[in-house]
Amino acid sequence: MADKIDKILRNYFTGRLDLMIKQRTDELKNVHVDDEDKYLPVVKKDKLTGELHTDWKKVFSRSEDDNIGGGRAQNKHTRPLEDMMIRVESDPVLNRLNKQKEDVERWLATFEPDKQKVVAYYYASKSVTWVKVAQQFHISERTAQAWRVEIKHILGAVL
């Protein structure tokens, strides 16, 4: 059964972690591209007549109203580039993904190249089994698994 470290390593070696970082960055940079409110259709059945009718429920709004009391906004600033950079740099999800990537890169570099190759080969595809890893690198299955456990143990302490 895959645990947190397995998922992080699989995301890293398949390139999914880079894709998640890029996707989150683009999402934060383009917040106002689709500035429409989002509505969800809610179908209700009339109890008396049995007819169906659709109501619309507001589920998401991107508009931010800083001027809640009427009058003019006096201290409103318009610095879209700075606001976007603050959103990107202070986003907890993006910071967590970047930290995971940096930790994996930093700690994998400390292992021997053979161990790095075995772990990279195993996590690069879900279809790879320990038998294939052992045949590819001319080692026993148990050795390959021990190398993976060693790397997971160290990364588990860091992540």
Automatic annotation (TrEMBL):
It comes from the Bacteria. This is Transcriptional activator.
